[in-house]
Design goal:
The chain is mostly helical. It contains five helices and no strands.
Length: 125
């Protein structure tokens, strides 16, 4: 006896109402929020972190730490955008706050990135 092939809608419906699907969504939300917060902290407070790391961890010029923290912050913003894309790709998981998430990311990420980039360029001289 052959099994009936499930349609895409049936698979999505099962995933939404299964515990495994909910855990997957929660995991995506945790990664989105975590990477967004860490990226914002790295980009905004990178200068102070670079000075702290230079004095207390390995004594190298703080500009190298600052450059690394800036690149890491930018990368985490990219990861946040990718996770949001995967989260919103499935129409079942799109919440009513989709526009708010995109607006917060669209305002905060360029602002923090431009500040971090400006500080890094000024440090390099």
């Amino acid at each position: 006896m052959q099994k009936k092939a499930q349609t895409k809608w049936e698979k999505s419906f099962q995933m939404v109402f299964s515990m495994k699907g909910r855990q997957k969504v929660k995991k995506y939300y945790a990664w989105v929020i975590g990477s967004f917060v860490v990226a914002t902290i790295l980009c905004v407070f990178g200068q102070g972190m670079a000075l702290f790391l230079s004095e207390h961890v390995v004594h190298i010029e703080p500009v190298y730490y600052l450059t690394g923290l800036t690149i890491l912050g930018i990368s985490l913003y990219a990861v946040t955008a990718i996770f949001l894309f995967f989260l919103f790709r499935n129409q079942e998981f799109v919440s009513d706050n989709r526009e708010i998430y995109l607006m917060i990311l669209g305002i905060t990420a360029p602002s923090a990135f431009s500040w971090s980039f400006f500080v890094t360029v000024m440090w390099w001289g």
